[in-house]
Design goal:
- The protein is mainly beta.
- About 10% of the residues lie in helices and about 35% in strands.
- The longest helix has 24 residues.
- It binds [4Cu:2S] cluster, dinuclear copper ion (CUA) and calcium ion.
- [4Cu:2S] cluster binds next to β21 and β25.
Length: about 650
């Protein structure tokens, strides 16, 4: 086998793509590169194609392995990007446990096939799914007292502007809300306590950043008036999942972060220019991080100071610069930050927000207390809320914190993680020449997007692990055709030096993830049959009921049989099958698949699901169990007889 040839071509392809990416992004870097004296100039060149050897003793590797029969220390919940789902895997092992279908369809679970899931996803008047696609980027759990309460996970759908909620007890999607006036819903973050009533010490609101500006009345008129396109920032009620209010802003929103006192939410803005083309979007020297004063916004809504747009009933308050000139009454504050920022993250001590430059080799550090001072009219300019702007390397994107005063930022162009000290960065910004913010660098393979620390978005950041979700894996895994897997690289950050300890392959394409210790998650193993109003509670209740052309089949499953050996319907009937799994044993899931009728879903112990379809094909159809449940699993079938 000609290894040499293969390696060469792989290297060429790899370098070509890296060079393309670097060249494209560097077009906007000119001044920034020269100013970055912290990094040798060579860093802008493509990295060598050979993987950087990882130096650690073989004995140490075992430390991060999870032996057979042992459990992982952490759960990782990861967005699936344009797969439209959320994944759960274990850390440090990287073992994949589950794909949670959210905005996508999934024939294992029957997501998008059962009536219950279709209702959550949303349907057109004819009963078909309104959307079949999704693009999940950011997963964030609900909070209590500044840390995760294990109730929910919220995740965005960038493509159709939807917010989904996943129940953590069953790890299934339970609600989806479509935001009005939004295309490109990118950043999402729950509040960490109620902004108005400090006694309500848990998540009550979820904040959503609209990335793409669109005409507010998007009706096909004035489509070329791009300067009039607008973005909105939305607040969704965490319990009802209804949209409470929106803020019309200048520029766009991107990622979202929230304060630990509940008072502020913020979003980095890379398109303060409100440009419609990329060169317009990178024409300003600085962009902004916009802060939302939640209590003031809600007072304005209460006082009726809002408008509505485009047929939506959601109140929209004015968050433009022109409408918020006086800090003392302003609803928003635009803090200037490095060019085209990507990502904003709150430090676990609640004091700072780090906004990465992307097209500037710097991160901008904003102090929470100073933003509040600006809202009190006690700060001269918005920029005075900035307390540091360390030069950290090329293409900084996302930052995680270790709870010991250090920040870890992914450098997309440099293919590195840079560790920098927050206090040193503040001192250096204040003029202390001896202060050296950057304390360590580690090569990752390759081009990291999101990076996050264990519990790093909570006050309980434990400083153990950093996971680097890299956009390219190139030569790290066995080739699987043109679409490569991506790499999630696990880094031990407990010491002074970062240590790369594992490469986990991941399926396209995780953006953000979070790492939660296993003790914070409590799942249920069996449903309560009474949760389902349509449950068929006894095998004896199985029957076929007809009302005109509408036929309902009441069915149960109990290993290794279905409650009916056969059922008969007529051609043209609208058939609804309601299936309850009567088994009470943990892990005893059954499935129901009907050939040629495109029906396939599972029912977990004591769960009920239903499907509706038109019996348009006469004949015999074996309805069978798909989920291996019993020695007689293959024999677990019934006949659907469709009379001509
Ligand atoms: S974005 Cu993808 S790497 Cu959607 Cu959080 Cu930064
Ligand atoms: Cu029931 Cu397999
Ligand atoms: Ca810009």
């Amino acid at each position: 086998m000609s290894n040499k040839k293969e390696d060469l071509s792989a290297a060429t392809v790899g370098i070509g793509r890296r060079r393309f990416i670097n060249t494209a992004a560097l077009a906007g870097l000119t001044v920034g590169v020269a100013a970055c004296n912290d990094k040798p100039a060579a860093s802008a060149a493509p990295a060598a194609s050979a993987p950087t050897p990882v130096a650690h003793a073989a004995s140490e590797v075992g430390k991060y392995e999870v032996a057979p029969g042992q459990l992982d220390e952490y759960y990782a919940f990861s967005s699936g990007g344009h797969s439209g789902n959320v994944r759960i895997y274990g850390l440090p092992s990287g073992r994949l446990f589950k794909n949670i279908p959210v905005f996508n369809t999934d024939c294992l679970v029957g997501w998008g096939i059962t009536n219950e899931s279709k209702k959550i996803i949303g349907t057109k008047p004819d009963g078909s799914l309104k959307y079949q696609t999704g693009d999940t980027h950011h997963v964030h759990p609900s909070y209590k007292d500044g840390t995760y309460d294990g109730r929910y996970i919220f995740v965005n759908d960038k493509i159709h502007g939807r917010l989904a909620r996943i129940r953590l007890d069953t790890m299934e999607t339970d609600k989806i809300t479509e935001l009005p006036l939004v295309q490109g819903f990118h950043g999402v973050f729950p509040d960490k306590r109620d902004p108005v009533d400090a006694a309500i010490n848990h998540t009550t609101r979820v904040f959503c950043g609209g990335e793409f500006s669109i005409p507010l009345d998007n009706n096909g008129k004035n489509m070329d008036a791009t300067a009039d396109y607008r973005s909105v920032f939305s607040c969704v009620d965490a319990e009802t999942m209804e949209v409470r209010w929106q803020v019309l802003i200048d520029g766009n929103c991107d990622l979202v972060a929230t304060s630990y006192d509940g008072k502020l939410a913020c979003s980095n803005q890379y398109n303060t220019e409100n440009g419609a083309h990329y060169e317009d979007m990178m024409s300003a020297e600085r962009d902004a991080c916009i802060f939302f004063n939640v209590a003031r916004i809600e007072e304005a809504v209460k006082a009726g100071k809002f408008k509505t747009y485009g047929g939506s009933k959601v109140p929209v308050v004015d968050g433009t610069k022109a409408g918020n000139a006086d800090p003392k009454t302003a609803l928003v504050c635009y803090v200037p930050v490095s060019k085209n920022p990507h990502g904003v993250n709150a430090s676990p001590d609640g004091k700072y927000y780090a906004c990465s430059g992307k097209l500037s080799p710097t991160a901008t550090l904003i102090e929470h207390a100073l933003v509040l001072k600006w809202f009190d009219g006690e700060l001269k300019t918005e920029r005075d809320a900035v307390v540091a702007e360390p030069e950290i390397g090329l293409g900084p994107l996302h930052t995680g914190f270790d709870g010991r005063g250090n920040a870890y930022t992914t450098l997309f162009l440099d293919s590195q993680i840079v560790k920098w000290n927050v206090e040193a960065a503040i001192k250096s910004y204040a003029g202390d020449k001896t202060a050296k913010p950057v304390v360590d660098r580690l090569d990752v393979m390759y081009q990291p997007g999101h990076g996050f620390t264990s519990m790093g978005e909570t006050k309980d950041a434990d400083g153990k692990y950093f996971l680097s979700d890299n956009k390219f894996s190139k030569d790290r895994f066995l080739p699987v055709g043109p679409l490569h897997p991506e790499t999630a690289q696990l880094i031990d950050i407990s010491g002074d030096k970062m240590k790369l300890v594992a490469d986990h392959s991941v399926w396209s394409e995780p953006h953000d993830s979070i790492i939660i210790p296993r003790n914070l998650i409590r799942t249920r193993q069996v449903y309560d049959i009474n949760e389902f109003p349509n449950a068929v509670k006894d095998a004896k209740d199985c029957r076929v009921e007809r009302k005109g052309k509408k036929v309902t089949v009441y069915l149960t499953s109990q290993a290794p049989t279905f409650g009916l050996r056969e059922w008969t319907v007529k051609r043209g009937d609208e058939v609804t099958i309601i299936l309850t799994n009567l088994d009470k044993v943990e892990d005893l899931t059954h499935g129901l698949a009907i050939p040629k009728y495109d029906i396939n879903f599972i029912v977990n112990p004591q769960e009920t699901k239903s499907v509706t379809f038109i019996a348009d094909k006469p004949g015999v159809y074996w309805a069978y169990c798909t989920n291996f449940c019993h020695a007689l699993h293959l024999e677990m079938r019934s006949r659907m007889l469709v009379e001509a």
